[in-house]
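Hi R.,

As promised on Friday, here is the backbone we talked about, encoded as structure tokens. Could you run it through your design pipeline when you get a chance and send me back a sequence?
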């Protein structure tokens, strides 16, 4: 018989803190920028409760892998399958074909508990935004299930060598995973975030706390200090940690150790902290936390797709309220009946219905994939425009040739990207200058210039401050600066800037002193969503207009004016406004002669490279072609 654990109200309260942090963060609570660490708190809670049960069963010689997996299926599968099915129906009504294709792939990977690997593979600079993937939050479920698929076997193996081996084994695995996570932050941040080896240490903190022989204090002062201190660590991280900070690694220890302290202190005597955590509202949210977590992110993703921009406060309040309602309904009518009514939901019935539900979702996913997103749902013109979301922008940037893709570990200069004769032009910066390269090459060659390119995704020129997020950026910019100073191109074109910084000004002044003509190309038009999607949505709504209108983000023009005024005071520098060069005082168009000018919210198609690139290139060279 399985060893059941006694109920712990304070742990339900801790679950409430964790899930509310995640939900509020995802619905746009700017005052809680680190709310996403609620997932890490969940990992610790899960590690503690499940591993404590495993240890007890193994120690008493009654642990069964089949029974363990049956309990996992009973706990996880019903709500997971129900929420996924409802989300799939809503997605089919709302999403455009390319989004539906990605959704189908995410369903297929998620139902087989490897969704985290799929989402890791989607962390490319030009990949869809997070809000276009309604099942993105399933990555954490996959990490947990992978851990519990492996960890029981590890416990069984270590237990053969005695309790000491189990303790040492858990601690060694914890240290190895934490060290690997911290190391991977500098090599492949997406892997550190999504993959099990670099997240396992969080569950292992809970597993370590659950080890036989761990002492739990019975002193009120110690217990109170642990609970309040742990809550402070969790809430402090939620309030102060920024989403742009490298994570998890060592930074994850603060909320994880905080969660462990709350659990440890709450296992002793009752205190003010445990009574607060065990209050009815906290316990209620804690009990529905799993269903609430499942339901909230599809609402975040699909409501924005369905309604477009929503005012922040109504979105936050309405979204949280709707999530709580749907989370409660899933808990009450799906989770609870399956967990409590074992006469009806016998192991055979449970496994059979789980396999059937998984098969149905997998078939649906395969149909969405095979048809490339069920495009028949749209009119022919909307289908044509939406298909630009599949646009291959690599040739526009010369990606893989002279453009470094996102998250590459290191920068490698290629000789074919560096000019070897004069007159010469060097193009240096991020993707927002790289997508001008085809036009600059054509204009330069027509005038006898040798054109070079040192560009990388999300890496503006000169600055090294992006190196924490973009590993190759520092190396690329150091190489570029050294090359420019040693080879002195006749024209240096910088782009991908949103602000001017002192280090940029200092570098430009040095380039001008060396006799180099410096050209700064300003920001490109930015839109609230991918241009093909905006156009397709307009067609479906009966709106044939192709001007930017309210879909343009005003920040790009504001930044353009600020940069123009700044560089106007710098001798030897030519500033080119993309807006003025290509659009004048009018709105920039989204489409010209039937072709969208951008394939996402900012990056050019070849049509866009021609439309914006030709007038900009003429201003770069400032002289007619020979």
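Update: got your reply. Pasting your designed sequence below so it's all in one thread:
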């Amino acid at each position: 018989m399985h060893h059941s654990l006694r109920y712990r109200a304070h742990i339900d309260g801790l679950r409430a803190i964790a899930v509310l942090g995640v939900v509020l963060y995802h619905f746009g609570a700017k005052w809680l920028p680190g709310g996403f660490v609620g997932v890490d708190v969940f990992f610790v809670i899960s590690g503690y409760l499940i591993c404590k049960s495993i240890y007890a069963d193994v120690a008493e010689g009654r642990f069964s892998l089949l029974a363990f997996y049956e309990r996992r299926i009973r706990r996880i599968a019903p709500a997971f399958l129900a929420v996924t099915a409802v989300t799939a129906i809503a997605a089919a009504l709302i999403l455009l074909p390319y989004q539906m294709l990605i959704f189908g792939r995410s369903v297929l990977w998620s139902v087989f508990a490897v969704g985290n690997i799929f989402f890791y593979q989607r962390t490319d600079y030009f990949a869809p935004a997070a809000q276009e993937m309604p099942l993105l939050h399933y990555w954490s479920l996959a990490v947990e299930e992978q851990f519990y698929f492996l960890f029981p076997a590890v416990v069984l193996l270590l237990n053969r060598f005695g309790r000491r081996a189990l303790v040492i084994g858990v601690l060694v695995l914890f240290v190895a995973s934490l060290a690997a996570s911290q190391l991977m932050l500098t090599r492949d941040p997406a892997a550190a975030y999504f993959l099990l080896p670099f997240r396992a240490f969080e569950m292992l903190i809970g597993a370590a706390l659950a080890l036989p022989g761990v002492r739990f204090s019975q002193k009120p002062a110690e217990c109170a200090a642990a609970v309040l201190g742990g809550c402070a660590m969790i809430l402090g991280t939620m309030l102060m940690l920024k989403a742009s900070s490298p994570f998890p690694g060592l930074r994850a220890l603060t909320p994880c150790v905080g969660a462990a302290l709350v659990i440890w202190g709450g296992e002793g005597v009752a205190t003010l902290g445990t009574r607060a955590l065990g209050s009815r509202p906290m316990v209620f949210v804690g009990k529905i936390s799993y269903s609430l977590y499942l339901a909230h992110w599809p609402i975040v993703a699909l409501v924005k797709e369905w309604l477009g921009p929503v005012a922040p406060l109504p979105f936050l309040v309405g979204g949280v309220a709707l999530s709580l309602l749907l989370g409660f309904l899933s808990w009450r009518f799906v989770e609870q009946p399956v967990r409590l009514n074992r006469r009806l939901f016998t192991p055979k019935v449970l496994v059979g219905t789980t396999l059937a539900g998984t098969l149905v979702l997998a078939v649906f996913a395969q149909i969405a994939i095979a048809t490339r997103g069920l495009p028949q749902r749209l009119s022919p013109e909307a289908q044509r425009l939406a298909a630009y979301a599949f646009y291959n922008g690599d040739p526009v940037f010369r990606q893989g040739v002279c453009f470094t893709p996102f998250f590459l570990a290191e920068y490698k200069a290629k000789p074919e990207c560096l000019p070897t004769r004069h007159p010469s032009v060097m193009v240096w910066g991020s993707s927002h200058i790289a997508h001008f390269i085809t036009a600059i090459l054509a204009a330069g060659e027509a005038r006898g210039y040798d054109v070079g390119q040192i560009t990388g995704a999300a890496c503006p020129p000169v600055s090294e401050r992006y190196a924490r997020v973009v590993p190759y950026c520092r190396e690329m910019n150091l190489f570029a600066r050294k090359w420019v100073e040693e080879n002195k191109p006749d024209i240096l074109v910088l782009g991908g800037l949103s602000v001017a910084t002192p280090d940029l000004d200092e570098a430009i002044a040095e380039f001008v002193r060396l006799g180099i003509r410096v050209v700064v190309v300003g920001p490109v038009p930015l839109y609230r969503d991918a241009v093909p999607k905006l156009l397709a949505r307009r067609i479906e709504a009966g709106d044939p207009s192709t001007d930017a209108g309210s879909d343009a983000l005003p920040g790009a023009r504001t930044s353009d004016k600020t940069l123009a005024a700044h560089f106007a005071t710098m001798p030897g520098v030519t500033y080119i406004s993309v807006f003025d060069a290509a659009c004048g005082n009018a709105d920039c168009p989204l489409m010209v002669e039937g072709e969208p000018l951008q394939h996402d919210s900012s990056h050019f198609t070849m049509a866009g490279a021609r439309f914006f690139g030709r007038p900009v290139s003429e201003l770069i060279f400032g002289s007619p072609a020979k």
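One thing I noticed while checking it: The chain has two domains: 9-377, 388-621.

Thanks again,
M.
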